[in-house]
Amino acid sequence: MGVSIAEERAEAVRLRARFVEAGAKNVDCAILQPAETLLDLYGEDIRARAYVTQDPARGEVMLRPDFTVPVVQMHMQSGAAPSRYTYCGEVFRRQEEHPERASEYFQVGYELFADEAPAQADAEVFALFAETLAPFGLRAVTGDIGILTAAVAGLKTSERRRDALMRHIWRPRRFRALLDRYSGRTPPPPARKALLEAQDAMAGAGPMIGMRSEAEIAARIEALRADAAEGPLCDSQVQLIDTLLAVRETCPYALEHLHDIAVDLPGLLPAVERFARRCDALAARGIDVEALEFEASYGRTSMEYYDGFVFGFLAPQRPDLPPIATGGRYDALTARLGQGRAAPAVGGVIRPGLLLQLEGGA
């Protein structure tokens, strides 16, 4: 027997009360959100994950896919750090790849905006979630998107290539395809090779179809030619990225391994030192860091607005379920929504319906 909406709502309210006790202010957000903001943040890809509709007065809108974006907007308009917020309510996600999963469910969240001591803020949020979820026997895993972005930023290649890799950090297959192409591991497709070798690539192209202008197409071709002329990315650098992405150990061993990688990729060191400070802050909060798992690639498929520390709580007894809770740091998101004025933030969400499934053995 499944979990009823009333049961899920009651569990959400219970969890929200726990976050209020921890000092958070309860807030609410409209179910209909402006599509323009979310499209600006995530591009057209979000249409595959969100429910989009047309409002006669407001134009294109989306059913709320999460709370983080509207909460950040609210804070950037009227809040002052440090601030703590909590919320609960329904979110709506299309599940084309996983039709067996719910497309409408409750989320309960906790968001902390703090300008100083990011390691302590990360530790506060993680420890609160760990304590709240302790009765459920979940497995915690952590990661750090900032370590991977630092590694990409330190690559000895063109700015164009670094920017392309940065854009696709949250799309692992595309990221890998770009690395293989830039390193020469994957030869260019015959059609692209012929295009780049043609003296006049637009000759005989036929009528214009689609939204791109002829000037935009020509600029894209020139960009491809410039990339082809750059030469392959050094294989040793690609191996460093591969080694980094393969790091999957408890935090102390991961930290040791990352320090070793930073010897050959010194741009990594500031991010690794932030990881070390976070480990100390977590230990000070009573977290068993010696046993806490760290995966360098964690968060790359479902946490695209996080840019630093990330975490998740998984149910080992129910591997078929998505993560029970997820969270992380999203400083860059606050800067984008604050029109350049940032308010460093970290937070997370819990899915109460999944907790009830664990309790009921469903």
From TrEMBL:
It comes from the Bacteria. SUPFAM superfamilies: Class II aaRS and biotin synthetases. InterPro entries: aa-tRNA-synth_II, aa-tRNA-synth_II/BPL/LPL, HisRS-like_core, HisRS/HisZ. GO terms for molecular function: glycosyltransferase activity; histidine-tRNA ligase activity. Residues 15-273 form the Aminoacyl-transfer RNA synthetases class-II family profile domain. L-histidine binds at D66, F67, T68, R93, Q107, E111, R300, Y305, Y306. GO terms for cellular component: cytoplasm. Keywords: Glycosyltransferase, Transferase. GO terms for biological process: histidyl-tRNA aminoacylation. Homodimer. PANTHER family: HISTIDINE--TRNA LIGASE, MITOCHONDRIAL-RELATED (PTHR43707:SF1), HISTIDYL-TRNA SYNTHETASE (PTHR43707). This is Histidine--tRNA ligase.
